Sequence to fold (691 residues):
Amino acid sequence: MSSLPKNEDWRSSGSRLIGFYAVFFVAWGALFTGVLYWEISHYLGTVAERTLLQRAHYYQQIDDTQLLAELAASEAFSTPGIDAYGLFAPDGKHVAGDLLKLRSNLPDDGQVHYLERGLSIALPSTETRSSYALMARRPDGHILILARDGGSISAVGGIIEQALMWGLSLTLIPGLIGWRLLRRRPLRRVKRLQLCTESIVSGNLSERLPLSARRDELDMLASAVNTMLDHIEQLMYEVKNVCDGIAHDLRTPLTRLRARLYQLQQLPLAREHEQALNQAFEESESIMVRFQGLLRVAELEDIRRRSAFAPFPIMALLKQAHEFYEPMALDRSQTLSLAIPSDCPSVYGDSSLLFEALVNLLDNAIKFTPEGGHIELRGSVKDSSVMIEVVDDGAGIPEADRTHVIRRLYRGEGSQINPGHGLGLSLVAAIVKLHGYTLDIRPAALDRGTCVLIHCPLFIGQTTD
Amino acid sequence: MSSALVIEDDQVTAEIIVAELQRHGFSSKWAATGRDGLALAIAGGYDAITLDRMLPDFDGLTIVSTLRSLGIQTPVLMISALSDVDERVLGLRAGGDDYLTKPFSAVEMVARLDALLRRTAADPSNPHLSCGNLRLDLVEHKLTRNDEDIQLLPTEFKLLNYLMRSAGQLVTRTMLFEGVWGYHFDPGTNIIDVHIGRLRKKLESDKNSPVIHTIRGAGYVLVTQK
Fold:
């Protein structure tokens, strides 16, 4: 089971929900302020239009001769830079007012028009921002332009925009902080659950997912999984019991069968009978070997076996295993070398079982390495652990097979021609597990050879120095 | 003729044991219950006892510890369906001399019983062993053949030591593995054969030396050549 990579934390449902809310909020905020802006600008536009029309209507009633004086008098009260007027001669020449130039795109219809680009104005700046303007022709042919600055609308837009920005930042920033904090706790719990399930997958079926006092949805899920695990454990226990029971019940009949065949072998027999009998005897022997192996693995998987544990010097054991197997390697023109440090502390366990594991590993290594190959038995001390490695330069175990090889009776496709009952590595795995060590099987070199590593933590209370 | 007492509740297993013992020149008596077995063993007259670890009435451990507490030192081979190493330790601690796990081979059983009988006869104070023209110095760890030194590796020395102690008797592979290397599991391959092969080469360069015969499906016998 692979753990969630760090940069994929956003995949958590909490993060997704918060992300969704953020997008929803931004969209809603934008829509809301958009509508607000549109409504306000529409209202301000209407107000400007009405004011201009009122002013135009007022000046319409003023006589041409008094117009200049009236314009000067009335417009003196208007806000400079917001309201402006311009009076032009029929030839377009500027006569009076802040507006200095005629604009060709302003229709001569007495109606209010909105101009994107401002009009030329005397004060306070030379050009206004966008404006509402109205052009009216006087009876004497003069042209009167009344204008009102449209900039107040863009100012309102600016204010709304700012309000939107403040709103977003004030909501999104605490939101993001909250998201980080909120996400951390459930994620930490999920990580704990993940670690726990990994341990269960690796074989600790008695382990259960941790529950919190909150009784939230994670706890509901964990509790359901725990109930399921109870069932699985119970089933496994029953299956194991049935298997062990069968194995146990078969001991006596198998002993009888083998003894009967043996008794027959002692009788004077015809040649062909003897041959058939020998084959039957060999078959029964092979059943026995597998059977004993199965019982042995079952026995080792039983945790009670730890009673014989004691600290023992591991390097002496490696030396003995090397001595035990060296002649066999020599017989096959292989080199079996031993590499151990001069000084090594003791490990805690059952030396006899560890020797059995080494025997199985060396046996496999020799069996599956071609003649002339190299096998190395290595011992080393690293980070307060002892590493035992059996390395060969044989064909190696295909990656897909590496997890299967430790299963009971599993034999790789290529191994069918070689003798063995397929229990060796599962026996090793059972011994390693019983000791609380770890087993790692990997290629020794690129795509070649096998390295089986047993990682033994040092006997408690001891250090490497 | 040696006599053996077979305490075993399973009739077929008992028949097999008795038949095999007879084939190897033992006279034997079968006791089907722990009570009968204990009574017969206490009455005495047997050179060795095979004792089932689990009997319907008595535990095999109780029988052997009772015998030992009564001062009866008859060698006891315990036979059990419990293969656990702890069970072996319990059996031996209670006073059993050897421990055999079911399913066992008849050959193995007899070879072990034989070894138990011989063990009582062996003299542990003798500093050397002799067999034919071979002489093994147990103090100096040296092998000589007609006063000529033969170099032995430590393992070869231990192996020959074991074989010479049991000269003329069948020794099974598991007995060798237990006796020479000190482990009680089945090494499962022909590794013992390889060690025997190497020792054999060293011994058989001289045609007058004893030879190690392989008994198919059983083990080895060190025999003196005539």
